[in-house]
Design goal:
8-stranded antiparallel β-sheet, 4 helices, alpha+beta, 3-stranded antiparallel β-sheet
């Protein structure tokens, strides 16, 4: 079965900037690493300020990884700025309802089909060991248009135990990260994000058309 995930852009921006998923917290092993530099000219989430409009699978995974890392559960905000991805933690611990899981962020991979984005992320615990969870998002396949709505599987793919327990968390985090990337791309251009599409092996980030306020006033 397919369920539809609808996320408003404004809500999503606030969502991923503070906490990717309600009741899902992220812990850093080293609080000294600050890869979120919002100073003028700095790098946001370790991503170059000019996020391109088109991303192939490998650059997409690289850009999404620091967004997925989130922020420490205790709200700690580091002060030392780092403008490379070297400071992004390779693993984080997600805690939900008393359960914990290690997310191997350095394992994130993406595959892009016409109208679909597929991502795989390795999780690990003491019982199951390490295994992937695979999530899919059906998006627009248009080259010049898209929206901020996606459809995803009711149950994620990959290891059955991890998919059943942590699949929704991975789905929500991955989609919030994609929306965050779209927002980064739009903000750098003084615009608002319009949508995300997948075509010809690449994700495309679309911007809302600028509004001519002089024409509106007339």
């Amino acid at each position: 079965m397919i369920c539809v995930v609808v996320v408003e852009a404004e809500h999503a921006v606030q969502h991923w900037r503070w906490r990717l998923i309600e009741d899902l917290y992220h812990h850093f092993e080293d609080h000294d690493d600050d890869w979120d530099d919002r100073s003028p000219g700095g790098c946001t989430h370790g991503i170059p300020p000019d996020v391109p409009a088109t991303l192939d699978p490998r650059p997409l995974a690289t850009a999404l990884t620091p967004i997925l890392a989130g922020r420490a559960a205790d709200g700690f905000t580091p002060t030392r700025s780092v403008t490379t991805l070297a400071a992004v933690p390779k693993t984080v611990v997600w805690v939900d309802g008393g359960d914990e899981i290690v997310a191997h962020l350095d394992s994130l991979s993406a595959k892009i089909l016409d109208g679909a984005v597929v991502m795989s992320l390795d999780l690990e615990d003491d019982t199951t060991g390490r295994a992937p969870v695979v999530v899919r998002f059906a998006v627009s396949s248009a080259t010049d248009d898209g929206d901020l709505i996606a459809a995803t599987d009711e149950v994620a793919g990959g290891h059955p135990a991890f998919a059943a327990r942590w699949g929704p968390a991975v789905q929500n985090a991955a989609w919030a990260a994609l929306l965050g990337l779209a927002q980064e791309h739009a903000t750098a251009r003084g615009r608002a994000p319009q949508g995300i599409s997948a075509v010809a092996g690449a994700v495309r980030l679309h911007l809302e058309a600028p509004v001519d306020l002089t024409r509106v006033a007339k």
